[in-house]
Amino acid sequence: MPRFTVHVRDEWLTVPCKDATCSIKWLGFEALKRYIKNKPDNGGIQHIKDVHFGVKRCQGLGLLDNDDTIEDVLEDNDFVELGNITNMVYMFSVCREIDYISLDGNSLTSTDLVNLGKGLYKIKLTLEAEQKVVQSRELLDTIVKENKVVYGITTGFGKFARTVIPVSKLKELQENLLRSHSSGLGSPLSPERTRMLLALRINVLAKGLSGISLETLHRMIQAFNASCLSYVPEKGTVGASGDLAPLSHLALGLMGEGQMWSPKSGWADSKYVLEAHGLKPISLKPKEGLALINGTQMITSLGAEAVERAEAIAQQADIIAALTLEVLKGTTKAFDSESHRFCDRVQDAYTMRCCPQVHGIVNDTIEFVKKIINTEINSATDNPMVFAERGETISGGNFHGEYPAKALDYLAIGVHELASISERRIERLCNPSLSELPAFLVNEGGLNSGFMIAHCTAAALVSENKVLCHPSSIDSLSTSAATEDHVSMGGWAARKALRVVEHVEQVLAIELLAACQGIEFLRPLRTTTPLEKVYDLVRATVKPWIKDRFMAPDIEAVHRLLVDQKVWNIAGPYIEKYCMEYIPESRPSSPTAFALDPPPSPRKRVRLE
Predict the structure, then answer these.
(1) Residues 172 and 258 in one domain
(2) Of the four, 57, 93, 436, 485, which is 20 to 30 A from 174 by CA?
(3) Where is the signal peptide, in residue numbers (predicted)?
(4) Is 490 part of a structural domain of the chain?
């Protein structure tokens, strides 16, 4: 029985067809029926028979006549799009022009890589990179033509490095490498993370030190630009010899085997996804399989996301702590060279008084880790390396992931402190003996529990982080019959660093909610201008807590504000202005005083006192 995949709004639906003589119109209505079946409001469609729509093929983008029969215009497993010209988003929406990032293997940054993952840019190579790739491939072709014995080109791999492979089987050798090494397990990487992984592998190959052919590299770029993304399980790498398992899965899909995803097709067999986008699978030449999988790109791409998100939440942690300081009527004099000169409060608890010291080392940690990740992003991590200008190949150890593994373990340990100290501030906000506010920040305590369990959630996340911060890079297990006898375990270092960062974001989201709730009990007093704007931002998303309600969506909504850096976007300009006017030698992103307005004179207090 033929089947078709139909795109309706943001969903992909499989529609079986018992009778291929049915019309395209029938196919559209069948897809609509499936679309509205599980929608509580029928997807906004009141009367399905009154809907008018158009249908087009995903491949070639050709419009189909609704009266044509399926067998005349479609083939089994075709992908089509459905658009409604009345009350649905019509398929001919204007696509914004997407800019390109030119890759040369030397200048990509972690920020660029994250933006590539988000689909904000497409990829192309610089002319210089293309020339280096061509020269590198020419040397490899010469090696094969002259029947030289070179590891990974005319020999087996790992323990089989001494096994010479006949020229007639060199293509099979590379294909077998990808198939056998595609042995990862676990959930697949998200499309965003798979885009990052593919983009980073392309960037490394663009250095012209791997022997990849320009044809194969161009096909990888075409797949990236079309968002044709392989199924890459998150588990299976030990981080030396590179991220072999995940990169093999990445390459396997490009070879037309295994599963692949794209916005147009959803998950399907790779060959069908590529075909739907008018793309051809890569055909491996000698050494190309090895060139596609030897490297630290899984560790480094996840690490790039972790360090970028860590940097963003660290900036916003300063702002959230400042808001809590205001709600608890803490003193800023601990941050002044003339501490307590005009203040009747001697000192606050460490969780408020020591914020600059605790937050400060987090910023320095992030800066250190980001430097290592950006170096790794532009490093040649293949083996053997192909040096066209010297006419030789060299086997080395650049594939070892110890650098990013150690750095990401350090990142997790560092950024965790933001959650650790935040959770203690949440306790102070919720505890009436410490805050002078209603217990758990809610009226009618007893009838209402307020932030009682939100604080427990924060405590649970901090406790989880204590385990996740145990370094994975201190472990090593010998693999490949003791040939690869020391490994980095960097894949787990990267994955758990991301988890720690996410937990930090969530704990700070709870603190931000609690601090804004505390302000409700201190009105009509007002805090500083930037903090009032942060309050307004939160209240535009989450209402004040009058009585108990379903809390998880509120936490998730504020977490999203932090991930999207909206809190920083609101308050950041004030911090930068303050730094320029009062601390000209400081960097805008470094921790400074927590009063986000210029320090008031002793005669004019603008804080909540």
Answers:
(1) yes
(2) 485
(3) none
(4) yes
Per DSSP, which regions of 354-407 are E strands? 385-387, 392-394
For residue 55, give the 3-state DSSP assignment. Answer: strand
Q: What is the rounded distance in angstroms from the CA atom of residue 294 to the CA atom of residue 287?
A: 11
CATH number at residue 180: 1.10.275.10
Contact 146, 343 (CB under 8 A): no
Average pLDDT of the segment spanning 378-401:
92
Residue 31, both tokens: 């897809």
CATH code for the domain in which residue 497 is found: 1.20.200.10
Cis before 384 (ω within 30):
yes
Q: Residue written as tokens 């509580």?
A: 40
Taking residues 57-62, report their average pLDDT. Answer: 66
Furthest-apart CA pair in the chain: how many Å?
A: 88
Query: Could you list the residue range(s) of the whole structural domain that residue 328 is in?
Result: 299-339+348-581
In a domain, 609, yes or no: no
For residues 313 and 582, which has the higher predicted lDDT (pLDDT)? 313
Which structure tokens are listed for 191? 């499309």
Domain boundary among 87, 115, 148: 87
Say if residue 191 is in the same domain as residue 270.
yes
* Tokens of residue 185, six digits: 């397990």
* Residue 586 backbone zone (phi > 0: left; psi -120 to 50: alpha; other: beta): beta
User: Does any domain span residue 325?
Assistant: yes
- pLDDT tens-place string over residues 73-99: 887 777 777 764 344 332 323 334 679
Whether 35 is catalytic? no
β-pair type (266-269, 259-262) = antiparallel
Q: How many CB atoms lie within 10 A of CB 214?
A: 18
* Contact in structure between 534 and 558 (CB atoms under 8 Å): no
pTM for this model (two decimals): 0.80
Going by DSSP bridges, is the β-strand pair 3-8/79-84 parallel, antiparallel, or unpaired?
Answer: parallel
Of 57, 87, 117, the last residue of a domain is 87
Number of domains composing the chain = 3
Q: Tell me: the pLDDT tens digits for 477-529?
A: 988 877 788 899 999 999 999 999 999 999 999 999 999 999 999 999 999 99
Distance between CA atoms of residues 237 and 193, nearest Å:
16
* Confidence (pLDDT) at 77: 73
- Which residue among 90, 100, 121, 151 is the active-site one? 151
Whether residue 158 sits in one domain with residue 38: no
CB count within 10 Å of CB 413 equals: 18
CATH code, domain with 32 = 3.10.20.90
Question: Do 113 and 62 sit in the same domain of this protein?
Answer: no
Q: What residues have CB less than 8 Å from 124, skipping those under 6 apart?
A: 100, 101, 102, 103, 221
- Indicate if 282 and 308 belong to the same structural domain: no
3-class DSSP state for residue 445?
Answer: strand
Q: What is the per-residue DSSP string for 502-571?
A: HHHHHHHHHHHHHHHHHHHTTTT----HHHHHHHHHHHTTS---SS----HHHHHHHHHHHHTTHHHHHH
CB-based contact 458:543 (threshold 8 Å): no
Q: Quick one: 48 and 130 in the same domain?
A: no
Is 108 within a domain?
yes
Same domain, 70 and 142: no
440 phi-psi bin (left φ>0, alpha ψ -120 to 50, beta other): left
Residues 108, 377 contacting (CB under 8 angstroms): yes
Q: Cα–Cα distance between 262 and 275 in angstroms, integer?
A: 12
* Same domain assignment for residues 216 and 311: no
Taking the C-alpha atoms of residue 485 and residue 5, their distance in angstroms, rounded to an integer, is 47
